[in-house]
Specification:
The structure is a single chain. This protein is an alpha/beta fold. It has one domain (8-245): NAD(P)-binding Rossmann-like Domain (Rossmann fold, 3-Layer(aba) Sandwich). The chain contains 8 helices and 7 strands. It has helices spanning 17-28, 40-52, 67-81, 104-114, 116-132, 154-177, 225-237, 249-260, and strands at 8-12, 32-37, 57-61, 86-89, 136-141, 181-187, 242-244. It has a 7-stranded parallel sheet, with helices on both faces. The longest helix is centred in the middle third of the chain and has 24 residues, at 154-177. The radius of gyration is 18 Å and the shape is globular. This is SDR family NAD(P)-dependent oxidoreductase. GO terms for molecular function: oxidoreductase activity. Keywords: Oxidoreductase. Belongs to the short-chain dehydrogenases/reductases (SDR) family.
């Protein structure tokens, strides 16, 4: 897909961070947008911002872990806009801690959002996208953690590796149908988002935190959500399955070579290539 003007995008986790930046980018491309999030204050702030720019916006306070809520939102989107052309399964939460310190309830919570949220988005929107037989694209938000593990990140890594598997399989299934619907896996590196807000005790407010005010602003390697969104749209235009915000071919190549050699896992901090 190369042209976006007049088309329709659906974004989950749209009230802040990467989701908010994707919504802004969609609006700048002349798209109509449907925004879903669990934080009504921030969601309405984003919607108001986009509407003031002339964008037609639909919002839904939706828990992506709830299949019925996602199905109802999808029906509302189709009733409002008709065909959906871009679907960003972006909503996600972060948990950290030693692998054995997470309860079953903790696991159920993060899996329900980070994995089933993607599944529910696919199930709610994709059948109609396939039936429409028009160019469309799905972007599932994974992570660098979709490819490499890190200490203290068992839950997040498990989720994001699952999203990679789901997304790769989805690509094969769509290819088997010769469907015009394409799919990408977004693997962000460090982005100035609010994914850690819940861990820090930060609750919903009417305004999303600007990247310039982020605790990690200015730290090496961190990029703005807007730059992330730019790279996502470049990936969609190029029909790239893999969308990396911070390419790390050298690091990944070394990891894969160690695995092929049968070396035991040894953690080295992820390093990114100099040129994106």
């Amino acid at each position: 897909m190369e042209q976006f003007e007049g088309k329709v995008a659906v974004i989950t986790g749209a009230a802040s961070g990467i989701g908010r930046a994707l919504a802004q980018r969609c609006a700048s491309e002349g798209m109509q947008v449907a925004l879903a999030d669990v934080h009504p204050g921030k969601l309405q702030a984003v919607a108001t911002e986009l509407e003031e720019s002339g964008c037609k916006v639909l919002t839904g306070v939706v828990n992506v872990a709830d299949a019925e809520q996602m199905n109802a939102f999808a029906a509302q989107c189709r009733a409002t806009f008709g065909d959906i052309h871009l679907l960003f399964n972006n909503a996600g939460i972060l948990r950290v801690g030693m692998t054995w310190q997470h309860t079953a309830a903790d696991w159920e919570k993060i899996l329900s959002v980070n994995v089933l949220g993607v599944v529910n988005g696919i199930n709610a929107f994709l059948p109609a996208m396939i039936e429409a037989q028009t160019d469309a694209h799905i972007v599932n938000t994974g992570s660098v953690g979709s490819l490499v593990a890190a200490p203290g990140m068992a839950q997040y890594t498990a989720c994001k590796m699952a999203v990679r598997g789901i997304t790769e399989t989805l690509a094969y299934d769509l290819a088997a149908l010769q469907s015009p619907v394409a799919v990408s896996l977004l693997c962000p590196g460090p982005v100035l988002t609010s994914i850690s807000d819940e861990l820090l005790g930060i609750t919903d407010s009417a305004a999303a935190t600007d990247a310039a005010d982020h605790l990690m602003a200015g730290e090496p390697g961190f990029i703005t959500p807007q730059l992330c969104a730019d790279r996502v749209f470049a990936g969609i235009r190029a029909n790239s399955f893999w969308i990396f915000t911070h390419p790390f071919k050298g690091y990944l190549r070394a990891k894969n070579e160690a695995m092929l050699e049968g070396s035991n896992p040894r953690y080295d901090e992820v390093t990114f290539d100099a040129n994106p």
